[in-house]
């Protein structure tokens, strides 16, 4: 079985539009090269919420700001041989 492929927002919108135009789910799945279950779940989510965006997923919140992330990356690239210090 091939690895799962995520549909981007444009493809999700296109799939819903095709389905609303009367294209069968199986044909929509074939056109987008995904399994039919992906399309079925997408249509179910669209009919329930009216949206095609993925819902937020839980996860640990970030503790560093984007600015701190850039600083860490820059320092790591400047001094590649330095080890990290544990404070």
What is the C-alpha radius of gyration, as a whole number of Å?
21 Å
Helix and strand succession? HHHH
Mean pLDDT reading: 86
Shape: elongated
The main sheet comes to: none
The structural class is mainly alpha
Give me the number of helical elements: 4
* Count of β-strands: 0
Poorly predicted ranges? none
Strand content: under 5%
- Helix amount, in percent? 40-55%
InterPro entries: Homeodomain-like_sf, WH-like_DNA-bd_sf
Protein name: Paired domain-containing protein
Pfam family, one: HTH_23
Record the SSE blueprint.
Elements lengths: L8 H12 L4 H8 L3 H14 L16 H13 L9
Structure description:
By secondary structure, the chain is mostly helical. The chain contains four helices and no strands. Helix 1 (9-20) crosses helix 3.
Quick summary:
Pfam families: HTH_23. The protein has 87 residues and is mainly α. The chain is 54% helix and 0% strand.
Give descriptors for this structure.
single chain, 87 residues, mainly alpha, Paired domain-containing protein, Homeodomain-like_sf, WH-like_DNA-bd_sf
